Amino acid sequence: MRLVCRLLFIGVLGMVVPAVAVGQPQANYDESKVPDYTLPDPLVTRSREKVTTAREWFAKRRPEVLGLFEEHVYGRAPEPLEGMRFMRLESSAKALDGKAVRKQVRVLFSAEESGPAMDLLIYLPKDAPRPVPVFLGLNFNGNHSVHADPAILLSTKWIRDRAPGVEKNRATEAARGTASSRWPIEAMLQRGYGVATAYSGDIDPDFHDGFENGVHPLFYGEGQTKPADDEWGTIAAWAWGLSRALDYFETDDDIDQRRVAVLGHSRLGKTALWAGARDPRFALVISNNSGCGGAALSRRAFGETVERINTSFPHWFCGNFKKYNGREGELPVDQHQLIALIAPRPVFVSSATEDRWADPRGEFLAAKGAEPVYRLLEAGGLDADEPPPPDEPVLSRIGYWIRTGPHDITAADWQVFADFADKHMRAADE
Ligand code: GCU
Fold first, then answer.
1. Cα distances (Å, whole numbers) of residue 330 to 118, 220, 299, 312, 327
2. Which partner from 261, 285, 323, 367 sits 20 to 30 angstroms from 247, CA to CA?
3. Is 17 in the pocket of ligand 1 (CB under 6 A)?
């Protein structure tokens, strides 16, 4: 009996989101109940002009779509401050049993040493020719959680209490390596890639405090106390932070800043897509189980909906996004256009069979829906008209796979990402 209770308890805790929350309608998981919808044509401007050349895409439609996502979904982010600088905190040429070079670098977002700041943790394969291509992604619970390496600086920032090894919102030594299954660093080094990460909470802690903590206040105008309705929420701030990591890479000769793949899981997958859409310096973009507000089409309202995400996580998107609660059809964009903003760069969308909350079919359809823009730019497309069977990756320029299993990012996912990067980011340059 006790065991049963315990299992039930773990089951409840382990669930990403309860199936029914008070005052919220049941999520729809029935394909026949997906509403009828028409997606905005990625190639037709708001004034109903069809763009027919790559030039027109880049001059007219791309800036328009980017502006619509800024205004209605994620919010506008500022340029970095002049005083931003980088501080080497630690490095070793003999990390991970001599297999890696490790660097820890603080990105100070302003001239103030007291913060806000983001600590980058970077592992590079020791013997690979320089400069090396790198996978960059934010983590959920602190850099120390990605690997048990005792030299990783233990975060002193706010971390959510339910994270393993965290007490009273602070990491303890027991938190080291607790997310290592999500960060197969040695395996990636072996494949010739560096891995870089930073704690998302360094940029903005993941709870709604009215935007008092994190990076937002650094940019408030006179008398401003929170972002305006078209200004950045937390996801846009995280994406902005990823671009600041790239700013650092541009100063580091060991890293090939022209071959940086940005990736993320779940809320951080939404973030990776937005970072890749905004910042064309990212050579390749990977979304893992990013779902609503990420790779999944909003208009399908399958699993998590716009209303649900805006209610559970009011700080993630910009204020204007809330206007579309229950009115997905009125959005001037849908998420296939987010993927299209990445064109012609390679993009990979990764789903999981049990991750219905993130709407795997909606993720596939968004990837497919980006295709007209890739085709216009003569960049290829998604070589599948229907979702492929589980565990069979499609490695075309718009790539897709659905892994068997739950909402998670695993060593198997990373191997597929490395295959995709080998094909689209390595081969071209070597
Ligand atoms: C919740 C949320 C999702 C998000 C996920 C995560 O499930 O509803 O939108 O992707 O958390 O980040 O793990």
1. 37, 30, 9, 21, 6
2. 367
3. yes
Cβ–ligand 1 contact at 153 (below 6 Å): no
**Residue appearing with tokens 């893992």:** 288
Q: Which residues are bridge partners to 50 per DSSP?
A: 44
pLDDT tens, 256-300? Answer: 999 999 999 999 999 999 999 999 999 999 999 999 999 999 999
Among this protein's residues, is 266 annotated catalytic?
yes
What is the distance between the alpha carbons of residues 348 and 343, in angstroms, rounded to a whole number? 12
Angle value at C-alpha 112, between 161 and 213, nearest 5 degrees: 30
DSSP β-ladder status, 166-167 and 132-139: unpaired
How far is it, in rounded angstroms, from Cα 125 to Cα 257? Answer: 16
Amino acid making up residue 75: G
Read off the pLDDT of residues 344-364 as tens digits, 9 standing for 90 and up: 999 999 999 999 999 999 999
Ligand 1 site, residue 151, Cβ cutoff 6 A: no
Give 79-103 pLDDT, tens digit per residue: 999 999 999 999 999 999 999 999 9
Position 318, amino acid: C
Task: Note if 110 is an active site residue.
Answer: no
Residues present in the chain in total: 430
Q: 234: buried, middle or exposed (CB in 10 Å: 19+, 13-18, 0-12)? A: buried
Radius of gyration of the chain (CA): 21
Closest among 315, 373, 313 to 45, alpha carbons compared? 373
Q: Record the pTM.
A: 0.95
Q: How far is the CA of 201 from the centre of ligand 1 (A)?
A: 16
Supply 136's token pair.
């960059």
